[in-house]
Amino acid sequence: MADMHIVQLGNTVFGRRVGIVEEPRILLFDKAIRSTYQLIAGAVNGNQSFLATVDALRTTEFIEYDDAYSGNGHWHMLPPIDCPADPMKCMLSGTGLTHRASADNRQKMHASKEEHALTDSMVMYLWGEEGGKPERGVVGVQPEWFYKGNGTGLMGHNQEWTVSFFRR
Fold it and tell me: Residue 18: CB partners within 8 Å, gap ≥ 6?
């Protein structure tokens, strides 16, 4: 099976749509599908596979991928998945196993100058580094993870992000 690239799109006139990338176009799904969350929930709650759900919802409508990606057309890219009806149901998080330099910086920032002991953060990072990718059939170590917020902080491709600073 080939990779499937599903995208969410927004338009100030027509609202939201979901489509599947088949370059150079994005083939749109039925207008009733307004989010990838809704698409996936429909497949999970339905009596057919995800592939069957996708095939059943395809239309012949399309938009040009490059226009949506560049933001030059009427449509723009939204985040890959969100929960538009309730952004609080979406959690933004990640794992700390991405950069050793980040773990080293946290170690330097939190370690006391007299002690050379590893901080809890570095211990968790090292656990994940040593046991985070186990051999087949072996239970690994859960990686360190961090919470960054809820779905109100999600941004789409080329979407402007406004940061506010408050003074006391």
Answer: 6, 7, 8, 9, 28, 29, 33, 34, 35, 36, 38, 39
